[in-house]
From TrEMBL:
Limits of the HTH merR-type domain: 1-69
Molecular function per GO: DNA binding; DNA-binding transcription factor activity
Gene3D superfamilies documented for this protein: 1.10.1660.10, Leucine-rich Repeat Variant
PROSITE patterns documented for this protein: HTH_MERR_1, HTH_MERR_2
Pfam families: HEAT_2, MerR_1
Species this protein is from: Nonomuraea montanisoli
Keyword field: DNA-binding
SMART domains in the cross-refs: EZ_HEAT, HTH_MERR
UniProt name for this protein: HEAT repeat domain-containing protein
Record lineage: Bacteria, Bacillati, Actinomycetota, Actinomycetes, Streptosporangiales
């Protein structure tokens, strides 16, 4: 079969067939009387083999080795092709994501596009300083795709950069809350923690509702951050978790401060004091935890807290008794 016929039947151009010939991949086994290349059935079968291997992403050099090297082992090459394909897909996915984010910013000029690209590149920089500067400047330099800020804040490991990103995200209002809510359900504990920290810095009703839901999270870290944020907003539903934090000694000072802020109203003060006393009376509470609970009563106003401290000043645990007596003395001086 002459080269033109082979080209028509195989779909491989005559120019490419000549290139295969020059590389030694497919050498026609014969020549016509006129000196034209003449391909046998075996030659044509080899052409189809070449095209099949090329469709997998092999280079012509790799194709030649696969067909002619008797020691060739395909498994290693296939594994390498899988790795290269995954890397290519990942790169294309990143490009698609970037294009979506630029489109979400609704640019009106090429300057807007270039500015968005520069910001996205800075947010993905390996330099923590550059990421932090990008976060701080993002609010002033124009609209930033909120998806980019959320992704950045949920993946950021540097505490300073994370703080800047949370601030920038808070300036965008509640646009990112739906994505942050998804972060609360992440299988990665650090992502859940970053999500609740970010929600805590957004001051609106939707954020507060998300924090209230977070109080029932199976992740204790999420519950604690939600309780501290809700306590600062006057959310009485956070009291049990805040008291648990005092008992456990985890951010107990912050938790006690939140309880004090929540106890600004007399009715709330008596309720919180009673709950603290109830925990003090539990036999399972260790001495150090009882001392922390006693200290938490210090900033709870009202007669319930004062009576509890008076009783505790005679407690069998000397450390608790001394702490209560000291607090009582300060309260009496203040009154």
């Amino acid at each position: 079969m002459l080269i033109g016929d082979v080209a028509r039947r195989s779909g491989v151009s005559a120019r490419m067939l000549r290139h295969y010939d020059s590389l030694g991949l497919v050498r026609p086994t014969g020549r016509s009387d006129g000196g034209y290349r003449e391909y046998s059935s075996e030659d044509i079968r080899r052409i189809f083999h070449i095209e099949s291997l090329r469709s997998l992403g092999l280079s012509l050099r790799e194709v030649g080795r696969a067909l002619d090297d008797p020691d060739f082992r395909p498994a290693e090459l296939v594994d390498d092709l899988i790795r290269q394909t995954r890397e290519r897909i990942a790169a294309e996915t990143r490009l698609l994501t970037r294009l979506h984010r630029i489109g979400a910013a609704e640019p009106t000029s090429w300057q807007d596009v270039l500015q968005a690209v520069a910001l996205l590149q800075a947010l993905g920089s390996k330099s923590a300083g550059r990421r932090q500067r990008a976060a701080l400047s993002s609010v002033e330099e124009g609209p930033v795709p909120v998806e980019a800020l959320v992704e950045a804040v949920l993946s950021e490991t540097d505490p300073n950069v994370a703080g800047a990103l949370r601030w920038a995200l808070a300036q965008s209002g509640d646009d990112g809350l739906a994505l942050l809510a998804e972060g609360l359900g992440s299988p990665v504990a650090e992502v859940r923690k970053r999500a609740v920290q970010s929600i805590a810095e957004i001051s609106d009703g939707t954020a507060t509702a998300l924090l209230q839901e977070a109080l029932t999270s199976p992740d204790i870290v999420v519950r604690r951050y939600a309780a501290l944020a809700l306590g600062a907003r006057g959310g009485a539903e956070a009291v049990p978790t805040l008291i648990d934090m005092v008992v456990e000694g985890t951010n107990d000072v912050d938790a006690a401060d939140a309880l004090s802020a929540l106890a600004s109203r007399p009715a709330s003060a008596d309720r919180i004091a009673s709950m603290l006393v109830d925990r003090l009376d539990h036999d399972t509470v260790e001495s150090s935890a009882r001392r922390r609970l006693t200290q938490a009563l210090a900033d709870i106003p009202g007669t319930t807290a004062s009576r509890a401290l008076a009783d505790l000043s005679h407690d069998e645990d000397r450390a608790v008794a001394l702490t209560a007596a000291y607090i009582l003395g300060i309260r009496e001086q203040a009154s």
